[in-house]
Amino acid sequence: MRGPGLLLGLVCICAVSSLAQGSPRGEGPDTRSRSRLSVRSPSRNEPPLPASQCVVYGMTMFEGAMWSPEPCTVCQCQRAMVKCRPTLCDPAPAVGEVQVVKETTEHKIRHQGGGGGGGGGGARRSSSKISTSRGQDVRRKEQTRPTAAPVKPAPAVKRKPEPAVRTPAQRVKPPAPPAVPPAPRTRTPHSNSSDEEDYDDDDDDEGTEDDDVVGPPPPRVKIDPQAQSPVVRTPGPRPPPRGPGAVQPGRLAPEPSVRGRPVVVFPQRPTFMESLPSGCLLSETLVACGSTGMTRMPVISDLGVKTLYLADNKISKIPVRALAGLPNLEWLDLSKNKLDDASFSPLLFQNLTRLRRLILDGNNLTKLPAFLPPSLVELKINDNKLSGLTPSSFKGLSKLLTLELEDNHFHDGNVSPLTFRPLRKLVYLRLDDNRFRGVPSGLPTSLQELHLSDNKIEVVQAGILNKTVHLRVLDLSHNRIREDRIAPRAWMHLLKLESLDLSHNKLVHVPSFLPMGLRQLILHHNQIEMIPGYVFGHLNPGLDSLQLSNNRLQDHGMDQVSFLGLTSSLAELLLDHNQLHSVPRGLLQLKNLQHLSLNHNLISYIPMNALCDTGARDDSPLLTVHLENNLIDRRHIPPTAFSCIRNYHSVLLRPQRYEDLD
């Protein structure tokens, strides 16, 4: 019995000693694996290691540290001993292949093929870097499993760092349904020109095809040289851009153009337009279809159109909703068409809150359209058949500045004195070519320019213009006015009147009691035979222009006092087509006279002191003197007759009536 017991004791001693040295026997296949791992003991010259550390390939491993010396093998330092075990994993990827680990909703990085079962569902383990805290959790789980014998790890294969791989950015959301992969990004279009260039802000990557991808930069994949799976780092949300060029939320981002300049993309507005005939001109703010032969007004809906020009057509019908889609329209021209009273619906202008100019010339209207836009500043209804104006005709048009009603059927009996009362800002009124026999009453106080030519006016009543104190221009030409039918006090309150046109009337004398501030008096084509003395004496500062052409003036109709009051102001005197036999007397008194016209008279002789004062030292201000078509013999003109005129070419003497035009 002593022999077998002694033998059993020796076996136990050997087993204990082998366990102490970390080299158990009889392990079969694991013997080869353990033999590859060399754990170097500290040399004599090195200080001894603590009992809880291991030295592997010259590196000190702390208690609980884990590493993977080769694929599908995990080693751990436990109680100063290296223990390795195989682990389940997918086949190693080929050289150059990169496995992308996507971040899940739990914000954990996992290996797609690796992992092992164990303990309540078996958490998957990555073969990449593992933190110390996670290593401690793994160690506690490993203690419940049979410990594998330590093996000699194979030398780690050093891999060259792979280039960074871009993957589409994936927005991380709070725990929710699985994230939907982002839509593919498109490349910014380049020009087809031969000089293609890259105008993005990033440096080009020769090996990356999506270098010009529009949007946030994709995440970078960083590969650990000692890890089997790369670690994906997704960049966090960028702060909102700031600065003058930043695109704010809700705004359209400018698209890069071929040359790198931003191209503004205008938002498309809803538009609708019926088919238009050929010859129309279209732009962002203009629709012009003049002289195209259309017979019906098209229905247009466009918020950008500000001008609609449809003149010189054959339009006779306007749909009720034709203008409803043009709320920003400012100018509407429907002149020279075939519109009548039935063409205008009461709701036609309802939506035109910004319309400023409405032109309806050359149509067949007998009354003003109802409910005109209050925003109007200019209204033209010339050359129609309007036959009356009532107190409500211009109701609501308080902003109107210009009103033209020329060539209609107005007369004293069908225009109410209260017609113009709503027009508190009216400054321009044209009533030419009607049938008035007198100046209409009730004119706006704000009026500055009044045109009443081509009427049948015979008389200018006293007080009819008393309220138009701001009047500057008054045109009464082509009427039947005589000087004795003008009331002496008719112009008394027109202190700002500067231009008075009484041409083409029946005047025999220059009218008296002219407005004090008058600067231009137009009296051509009358029957004037005389300029009374002192008729201009009360004017201050005096006339600039006096037009007396085409009258019946003779030499005895003017004397030295006829131009009194104009000596320092008159610059233009027109006496063409009269019956003068000599240069009028008193012209030397006009010190500012620059233009003198005496064409088509009967002048045969020019006295020495008629135009130039031989005793004066200064030159005359005369610039032009017209004496054509008279009876002047140039050989009999005194040498000093034009000596005061600066340029002899300014004196025009040819042709004369007796001369051959050749």
TrEMBL record:
Residue spans of biased composition, Acidic residues class: 194-213
GO MF annotation list: collagen V binding; heparin binding
Comp. bias (Low complexity): 164-173
Keywords (A to Z) from UniProt: Leucine-rich repeat, Repeat, Signal
Signal peptide bounds: 1-22
Record field: compositional bias (Gly residues): 112-123
Phylogenetic lineage: Eukaryota, Metazoa, Chordata, Craniata, Vertebrata
Positions of the UniProt region annotated as Disordered: 21-50, 105-258
Biased composition (Pro residues): 174-184
GO BP, sorted A to Z: extracellular matrix organization; positive regulation of cell-substrate adhesion
SUPFAM superfamilies associated with the record: FnI-like domain, RNI-like
GO CC annotations on file: extracellular matrix
Name this polypeptide is given: Extracellular matrix protein 2
Protein species of origin: Merluccius polli (Benguela hake)
Pfam families xref list: LRR_8
PANTHER family xrefs: EXTRACELLULAR MATRIX PROTEIN 2-RELATED (PTHR46544)
Keyword Repeat: yes
Recorded name of the encoding gene: ECM2_3
